[in-house]
Amino acid sequence: MKLKYISGILAIAAALAFSSCQKEAITGGDIDGLSVSTSYVALPADGKETVLEINAAGDWTINVPESASWLSVTPTKGGAGVTRVTFTAPESQACNKATLTIDFNGKTQYIYVTQGTAVISDATCKEILDGPDGKTYRVTGTVTRITETATYGNWYIADETGEVYIYGTKYEGATKQAALIKLGIDVGDVVTIEGPKTTYNGTVELVDVDVLKVVKSMVKVIGADKIQPLDAEGASFSVDVIAKAGSLSVEADQDWLLLASTKVKKAAGKDPVDTTVVTFRALANEGDVRTATVTVSSGTSTIDFEVSQKSGLAAYPLPYEETFTSGNLGAWEINNINVADAKNATVWAAAGDYGAKASAGQKCVSEAEIVSPLVDLGKVSAATLSFEHCHKYAGNVYEEFTLWASGDNGATWDQLLIPHYGTNVDYNYVSSGSISLNAYAGKQVLVKFVYKSNMDFYGTWEIKNLKIVEGNGTLGSVAEIASLGWNKDVKTDFEATLTDALVTYVNGNNCFVEDVTGGMLLYKSGHGLEVGDKISGKVTGVMTFYGGFAEATDLNVSEATVTKGATVAPTVITVDKLLASFNRYVSCMVKLEGVTFDKELVDNGNRNAVLTQGSSTIALYAKVKTGIAVAAGASGDVVCFPCYNSSVANKQVGFWTNTHLTVK
Questions:
Q1: What is this structure's pTM?
Q2: Contact indicator for 391, 424 with CB cutoff of 8 Å
Q3: pLDDT, tens digit, for every residue of 409-453?
Q4: Cβ(620)–Cβ(636) under 8 Å?
Q5: Strands (E) located in 549-613
């Protein structure tokens, strides 16, 4: 569909522009673990030296090409910390140029050295996207999206060759100065900028750019950034358009988005040009989430904005995918539970290439979630969820970044263990691993991600490329195997590849196995495993849920490598940390120190107690029947295995041998 509206009002508008003098040295970019004070070293013709600072987390080496015999660099090697590197050249009237590289941790930082006048050539967005990190570029393009204005000035620039993300904009040579606001930069403006390139989590960025020129757009759209996803039943919305070139063209690329009306408001206030109120109407949507692009033009200026509409589907069929990288959250909805003290009141937001991003922005108690649409598992017996995520600055990822599922349209929710988290010290994306949804087979399922912050930590969590598919997925850890065992009515065959899965305890037919992701209980007559056995390689078996444990009723290790004699030691953990990360430690060997028993434990008698540690409590069940003698009020240490009492609603720990009990 193509809609055109000509306002019929001629207006005179002057393009606003400014420029700055070219600099001789350009402040540079960085790579993870290494930063340089400049990526462009300019030596004067009279041969004076110039100093570059390298701040590194480890050893580095500068490589000077043979063709740069005119250049002296000292030192060319260094280690962790800040090192001052001196660049020297004799007096010369020639135009000398050299490209040096810094090798660090398998990565390369480029340094560009010239003697004489420093010249930065114009580049296209594609040349920036394809070029090396560390190089400084000048580019002219249109502002397509603005993601942050108040402090850093984060936005996107595009030309006919591509689009580049800008992270940080300078004002009068300084960063964090709300440059976009002070410079009056809006979507649709044509700008010329300079800045160094870096690649962060796979996204190409120009960092802390200098704005050299701004040509104001002849068209301005007010209100497009406030448009929420439209209801599936159909809805209307309006935007205000100021067309400074006199004519106005409006074009939508989808037939479901109709132009309902236009109305001219006479000029008032600071704008000497009339405003046109453009109203759109969206038809009812019976399918998936859909998006339309609206193009608004006046003279030579054009602005695009997107409008999305919610799905009209009762439930999404498999396979279900959501990248979260399209600039919106698709059919997912934000539910703010407690965000009163968060710096960012929405907490969750669509962050472009970074996916769905959550952060409270400051130390405070907050909680917010994003909830999926219904996904139909009615015709499958097995389904698997997976996604990519990264995070930083959390205190306890198992408590602050969690995943939940519901098989009754949100009436009740079950927490699902995320097998793989990141390091929490970088923003490198990792795969969650395969997370079983078999417990919801035959139903329609909702899933949600829950973010929390507290008075000590406010982490940042980014999620993208989520998939729900039929089958059990590819299993590579104990936690992924255990996730198959949360339905007591189902037995699931599995095949997995384990790495260093450790047998921590054996009691007859019972055998506990764990790795860095989680634990599981094996119950099999004649399993042949011993404490200290370490399993790596292909295993097969059958999983179910029994007695509060995700339990393997069979585990075949004949195709795996089993090495004996590994050291076994329990994970020492506090009760409150255990409760906060309970799914992570189910069936793992843990040690609770300095706990107090509220009841007496006796041979062939009472085997239940409540353990208290500080202000935290947890239920205890003694799996042994004889040889125990604990007085009410006694304190000591317990080596135990967390499990659920019949259902996941009841958390408890159990000790299986008196040798794991030390009463003082």
A1: 0.67
A2: yes
A3: 999 998 898 999 999 988 899 999 999 999 899 999 999 999 999
A4: no
A5: 549-556, 560-563, 571-572, 590-597, 601-602, 608-613
